[in-house]
UniProtKB/TrEMBL annotation:
Residues 265-288, 742-768 are annotated as: Disordered. The keyword Transmembrane applies. Keywords: Membrane, Transmembrane, Transmembrane helix. The chain crosses the membrane at residues 12-34, 40-64, 76-99, 119-145. Residues 511-704 form the Sulfatase N-terminal domain. It comes from Penicillium cataractarum. It comes from the Eukaryota. Pfam families: Sulfatase. The lineage of its organism: Eukaryota, Fungi, Dikarya, Ascomycota, Pezizomycotina. This is Sulfatase N-terminal domain-containing protein. Residues 757-768 have a biased composition (Basic residues). Residues 279-288 have a biased composition (Basic and acidic residues). InterPro entries: Alkaline_phosphatase_core_sf (IPR017850), GAG_Ulvan_Degrading_Sulfatases (IPR052701), Sulfatase_N (IPR000917).
Length: 869
């Protein structure tokens, strides 16, 4: 029985699915980048972009050729051709489905990590409807044209075979049907066809060899060849040697030197410190004797770990004065911090914390409403996040310019007028991937610029908050050994209590090794989804899961209350880290939560996703009110520091019509986040600083010391550790840059000088230099791009770290919503464009930013000890 007796049209259909899917995917691929391609170059080189696709098509057409009679070998080749066709059809459907959901392309190199993670698979499956729709459309088109495509391709390959072999009377065509060759004689017409064919092939070969590699090599990638990236996943390893340090590319007054030459064991370090303090515990020579050779370079005795003394990017403000109102409160001993809560808001955009007029996001939301409905829309939007208004002190105004009435909120701020703490405006996240961002806020470190959480296989190069509190606990043993110094007996009883660090979230901690990360950071107690579903749990979840990660935050309420009551009973000093999740895609809320309609119907964008996101943000704002209420009810609000930070933002079509979401998207809407230090007895201070979350741990330690909330021994340890962290303390004026070795900019510096890191003004006595506080933000998933800014400047560069991504520049003063990005495939072209559009100062900064960014990527890999396995 013949192989295709029952399904004779199957090979032509599968072949057509490959052709339609492959070419459609290529068209989408080119369309996403066409805006950055010079028109004439694109027209000239566009034929070369489909050469790989044509070769794949020809190869599969040969595989699907079914002569009569079939042979066993032909069965194998036909099966292989069919498999390749199905792979291309499926991959193309995924590409279109992913694009319809996010506006971006699939990065096949990262897909291997997703496929091996059950929680990540749920993310992928959430878009199954759009993928299925794309597959249906592509399959329908393939079905309609399968006969002609199969036939014409066969004729074309027949002609090429005849031309190359010289056989002008081929017995069979590639259709498997006997026919006469179209080249029966060598007449003038045939010669002309041969000449044209040779000319086209020669021209394509010439263009292929002479075209610029960037970006055309990336654009010419063809399915299924690009799918091979999915099988090239690289992971971290601690074996081998750390890479050599690079020389910092710009001027710096930092003196170089090796910590190995000046190392001494700190006097405050206990005999047996907790994990996280290995670089303080052992000298570099002692490290060399341990089973961790990665702390050294191969051919040098320079330690590989982080050394604040030789960090050219570190600018410390610890020598500066504390803000006057804060110092007065500290001197009066009116600020008591017995407990610390760190709340991380998933997709926590600053524009929503709180929602108020005057932001690019608010303006974009209003545009969805007809003009006659906008006053009502304003009044509805500004009452969306009342708790955030009270926590930040940024009170919104309604359509009549009056302060919004917040009496209907589920929490009312009991703090006196002018009190409430620090509110940072202008902060940016260190990563648009949640867990890499958490490394910054919890450990004061920059993340590793590679895809996903490879940090879990490495040692975090600074002690994290749970490890710091465990360090304090080591000298609070009621029966101290002779090696452990005595406690300060003059301290209050509360300061003698041990710290208890607890991590809570209502979703799974299995995604991308978060459970390993939490353990590495020092958390010994946790409440996560597995806790809420365990039969042994004290409080099992009562509601339904609201997304593919887990439950709504309100399921944690009894656990949070128990922890607060334990702290109120004066048994422990609490450190609670809590990550929200409802504001993560798909932005669902519990069934009993009333949905508001914040969006109108104007414009070509479907506003349903944004409306869901806004409602989820209102739900989380309400949950923050529940937390603050429980603090009040248990009586510990006046002794608790509440730190609130967004892990990253969330881009929608209302922000950026080209691309949505955080994945491979460097848009500014993914980076502006809130940072708040809430305490009812701290004066209300607004801080305008281009800071990042790496300043959180420095600020917490500084607050504990300056508010006299640590006993003498703990204060000594905290004060000694403070200078080692990279972030500045936000209870002191933030230093955006240093000029000529001074810690603060002078009042007479011109704007032009301040805007150019390498600007040299010819003053008497030499050149003028500026050293900036550079900030970096990794773009989800981590290894493709990095966002670069310099504090005090409006410029921003998104720097690609591998092929397939464009350089992007913006001036956030002129274009705060990044609606008019300057993009290019090469740095040279970008500098030229920026020079013509933004001037010499911006172009000079751009060149420096690229050099600093490349140095930083190498330095992060070095101090993390990262090597690819």
């Amino acid at each position: 029985m013949k192989l295709f007796a029952y399904l004779p049209p199957l090979p032509p259909f599968l072949f057509a699915a490959l052709v339609v899917g492959g070419l459609a995917s290529k068209a989408l691929h080119i369309a996403l980048h066409i805006h950055s391609l010079p028109f004439l170059y694109f027209v000239l080189y566009s034929p070369t972009l489909i050469i790989p696709d044509l070769l794949v098509i020809a190869f599969v057409r040969v595989l699907l050729h079914t002569p009569s009679p079939e042979t066993k070998l032909q069965w194998v080749t036909t099966a292989l051709g069919g498999l390749l066709s199905l792979i291309v059809w499926g991959a193309s459907s995924i590409q279109f489905g992913f694009f319809m959901q996010t506006g971006a392309e699939v990065a096949w190199a990262a897909s291997n990590s997703f496929l091996s993670d059950p929680a990540a698979m749920k993310i992928l499956l959430s878009g199954i409807s759009t993928v299925s729709a794309a597959a249906t459309v592509l399959g329908l088109i393939a079905w309609l044209v399968h006969a002609k495509i199969y036939h014409w391709t066969g004729l074309g390959l027949q002609a090429i075979r005849d031309l190359l072999s010289g056989s002008y009377r081929a017995r069979y065509t590639l259709l498997g049907v006997p026919s006469k060759s179209w080249m029966t004689t060598m007449d003038l017409r045939t010669v002309r066809r041969i000449a044209i064919t040779v000319s086209i092939c020669s021209s394509l070969l010439f263009l292929e060899l002479t075209r610029p590699s960037v970006p055309y090599d990336h654009l010419s990638g063809a399915l299924p060849l690009t799918l091979l990236d999915a099988f090239t996943k690289k992971s971290s390893t601690t074996e081998g040697c750390r890479q050599s340090p690079m020389k910092f590319p710009l001027w710096t007054d930092v003196k170089t030197g090796f910590m190995a030459n000046s190392w001494s064991r700190p006097s405050w370090l206990p005999q047996n410190p907790p994990p996280g303090f290995s670089r303080y515990e052992h000298s570099p020579d002692e490290r060399a004797e341990k089973d961790n050779p990665s702390w050294y370079l191969c051919n040098d005795n320079e330690p590989g770990f982080y050394n604040p003394k030789t960090d050219p990017l570190k600018i410390s403000n610890l020598g500066g004065d504390i803000y006057g109102p804060l110092k007065a409160a500290f001197d009066a001993h009116s600020v008591e911090i017995d407990h610390v809560i760190l709340l991380t808001l998933e997709s926590g955009r600053k524009e929503l914390f709180p929602m108020q007029q005057g932001t690019p996001m608010f303006d974009a939301l209003l545009e969805s409403h007809a003009k006659e409905d906008r006053e009502e829309a304003i009044d509805r939007l500004v009452t969306m996040t009342p708790v955030s208004q009270m926590l930040t002190g940024e009170y919104a105004t309604d359509s009549k310019g009056e302060k919004v009435n917040l009496t209907s909120a589920n929490w009312q701020d009991p703090a006196e007028e002018g009190m409430g703490g620090l509110n940072v405006r202008g902060a940016l996240t260190g990563s648009s991937l949640t867990f890499k961002s958490i490394l910054g806020s919890h450990c004061g470190v920059h993340p590793l610029p590679v895809d996903l959480l490879e940090e879990t296989g490495l040692e975090i190069y600074q002690p994290c908050l749970p490890q710091l509190f465990e360090l304090f606990n080591t000298v609070k043993n009621p029966n101290p050994t002779p090696e452990i110094l005595e406690r300060d007996d003059s301290a209050s009883e509360a300061l003698k209590n041990p710290w208890k660090s607890v991590f809570m979230q209502s979703i799974t901690d299995d995604y991308d090794r978060q459970d390993v990360l939490n353990e590495n950071m020092g958390f010994k107690h946790k409440v996560v989804k597995s806790t809420l579903t365990s039969r042994k749990s004290k409080y099992r979840a009562k509601g339904q899961e609201i997304n593919y990660f887990g439950f709504a935050e309100t399921e944690l309420k009894p656990y949070v209350r128990d922890l607060f009551e334990e702290a109120a009973n004066n048994k422990t000093r609490m450190f609670l880290s809590h990550v929200t999740s409802t504001t993560h895609h798909p932005w669902n809320t519990p069934d009993d939560f009333a949905i508001e309609h914040y969006m109108g119907s104007q414009g070509s964008i479907n506003h349903n996703l944004m409306n869901n996101y806004l409602n989820s943000a209102r739900f989380v704002d309400n949950w923050l009110g529940d937390i603050m209420t429980m603090l009040d009810e248990t009586g510990i609000a006046n002794s608790t520091l509440v730190v609130i930070v967004g892990d990253h933002g969330q881009a929608f079509g209302e922000d950026n019509k080209d691309m949505t979401g955080t994945y491979e998207n460097g848009h500014i809407s993914n980076y502006r986040v809130p940072i708040v230090f809430r305490h009812p007895h701290m004066p209300r201070i607004n801080i305008d600083a281009n800071a990042t979350s790496i300043s959180i741990i420095t600020t917490i330690l500084d607050l504990l010391v300056q508010s006299h909330s640590l006993d003498a021994r703990d204060s000594e340890m905290a004060s000694s550790l403070l200078p080692d962290y990279q972030g500045q303390s936000l209870i002191r004026p933030f230093i955006p840059y240093i000029k000529d070795g001074h810690d603060t900019p002078t009042e007479n510096d011109s704007d032009v000088e301040a805007r150019s890191p390498r600007k040299k003004s010819h003053h008497k006595g030499g050149h003028h230099h500026t050293r900036y506080n550079w900030n970096f933000g990794i773009v989800n998933a981590g290894g493709s791009m990095v966002s670069i800014t310099a504090a005090g400047l409006p410029y921003r560069l998104v720097l690609p770290l591998k092929e397939g991504f464009e350089y992007a520049f913006s001036d956030l003063n002129k274009d705060p919503g990044e609606l008019h990005l300057v993009k290019s495939w090469t740095m040279a072209d970008l500098v030229d464009d920026v020079l013509s559009k933004h001037g010499q100062s911006a172009a000079e900064w751009l060149e420096d930013a690229e050099q600093v960014g490349k140095w930083w990527v190498n330095e992060q890999r070095r101090i993390w000890g990262y090597r690819e396995a």
